[in-house]
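Postdoc handover notes: sequence design on the structure in folder B. Input tokens:
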């Protein structure tokens, strides 16, 4: 994975997808090495030089839409330095546009689309004989033609996957900068894949809409490995798209953690849905060590929620936040600006909701129609989807809007700055945060203040 130009982030999670792929390859008897330029800051030249020592047969990388160009640049450099080495690309971008990506970039020899573990194991066995036509879920070249084999569908039994091969990563690098966690070391885990909800902006190219879940026993076995045995992690971040969709399973997991008496803190930085919580579940979460919960709210306006097919309403969000605050959780809300049906008035409703609910953190993104989302498909049908993939970067304030939401980029930027100022620069805000969350609140203040100043200085 190359060094990328992502927005500066304090939290760098271990790429679990790569960890899973590595573990299935190891299980199938292959040798694997991981070089993460993202967390190490390695230049392409440094990665090339490291590859020279390992002499690999295949170099794989994983790209999202906004870091596709860095991945292509690295794979081209690999082909230039080692013409005999094969290159493979996976990730959400090629999963959404498999043939397109291979046709456009001859530095990629093979692509894997969709959920990669089973495909990767079969690909590695079939490669020596060059017989890829029977491996589902790949794209490759045959002469001048690009061949896409049939879709493999989703992995049904997630318990059948080995745990991510964490031992291949330089683990200390992933939490070195993480000042805003409650305790270190911190690890992330994923316990379910897929989401049946249909939010119009959501990229579903890898995990899709079919919800699959690991059993509580399987999840507890991984947490035990992280907390009690090998690694001695003191904090776990659960990064599922929708962890509490099966509330019974969620309770079982927390009952298991409480019963085992593990000394661990837990956070949900990706957001859970407000319509899939209860007082009983939150009570168990707190007893199990949960201290931080984000909700993916998207908009403070019911009309916008309806338009984007969020499937929940402001009343449910109010109630969920009330219940979370009752437990003393650090509560953050994610909003997306510029959604279909939105306006400056609806953005104001989002800010007012965050202020009214007196949450601890307001996270404001801007609509990005990633390939793999229904919004992208719609724009593509209308011939309006942008293929300037660099413009899909998270650093939205510097780019033009990729979707005509009725507001201009300048209007959204002005509103973003104004909302952030009115939320974070309230005189009462720092005192509340520190009073409610002590040292963790102070660390959050420090991180958020630093990020606001960096943005102001244009060095994000
Ligand atoms: S945004 Fe969240 S709730 Fe909506 S479809 Fe995506 S994962 Fe599901």
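Designed sequence:
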């Amino acid at each position: 994975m190359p060094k990328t130009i992502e927005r500066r982030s304090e939290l760098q999670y271990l790429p679990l997808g790569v960890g899973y792929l590595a573990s299935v390859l190891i299980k199938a008897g292959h040798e694997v090495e991981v070089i993460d330029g993202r967390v190490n800051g390695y230049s392409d030249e440094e990665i090339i030089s490291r590859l020279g020592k390992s002499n690999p047969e295949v170099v794989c990388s994983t790209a999202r839409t906004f870091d596709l160009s860095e991945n292509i640049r690295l794979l081209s450099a690999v082909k230039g330095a080692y013409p005999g080495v094969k290159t493979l690309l996976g990730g959400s971008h090629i999963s959404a546009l498999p043939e397109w990506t291979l046709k456009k970039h001859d530095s990629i020899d093979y692509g894997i689309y969709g959920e990669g573990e089973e495909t990767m194991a079969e690909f590695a066995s079939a490669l020596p004989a060059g017989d890829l036509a029977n491996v589902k879920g790949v794209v490759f070249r045959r002469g001048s033609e690009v061949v896409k084999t049939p879709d493999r569908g989703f992995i049904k039994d997630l318990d059948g996957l080995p745990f991510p091969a964490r031992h291949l990563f330089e683990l200390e690098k992933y939490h070195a900068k993480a000042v805003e966690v409650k305790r270190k070391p911190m690890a992330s885990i994923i316990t379910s894949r897929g989401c049946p909800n249909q939010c119009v902006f959501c990229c579903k190219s890898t995990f899709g809409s079919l919800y699959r879940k690991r059993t509580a026993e399987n999840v507890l076995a991984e947490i035990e490995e992280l907390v009690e045995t090998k690694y001695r992690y003191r904090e776990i971040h659960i990064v599922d798209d929708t962890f509490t969709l099966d509330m019974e399973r969620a309770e079982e997991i927390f009952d298991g953690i409480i019963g085992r008496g593990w000394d661990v803190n837990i956070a949900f930085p990706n957001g859970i849905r407000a319509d899939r919580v209860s007082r009983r579940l939150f009570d168990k979460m707190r007893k199990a060590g949960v201290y931080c919960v984000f909700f993916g709210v998207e908009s403070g306006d019911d009309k916008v929620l309806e338009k984007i097919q969020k499937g929940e309403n402001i009343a449910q969000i109010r109630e969920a936040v009330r219940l979370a605050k009752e437990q003393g959780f650090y509560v953050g809300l994610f909003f997306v600006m510029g959604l279909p049906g939105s306006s400056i008035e609806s953005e104001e409703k989002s800010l007012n909701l965050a202020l009214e609910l007196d949450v601890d953190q307001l996270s404001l993104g801007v609509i990005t129609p990633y390939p793999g989302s229904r919004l992208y498909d719609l724009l593509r049908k209308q011939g309006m989807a942008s293929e300037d993939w660099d413009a899909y970067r998270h650093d939205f304030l510097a780019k033009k809007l990729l979707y005509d939401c009725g507001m201009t980029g300048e209007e959204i930027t002005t509103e973003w700055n104004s909302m952030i100022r009115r939320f974070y620069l309230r005189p009462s805000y720092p005192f509340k945060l520190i009073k409610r969350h002590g040292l963790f609140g102070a660390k959050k203040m420090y991180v958020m203040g630093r990020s606001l100043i960096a943005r102001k200085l244009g060095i994000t």
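Context for whoever picks this up: The chain is about 40% helix and 15% strand. Don't rerun without checking with the PI first.
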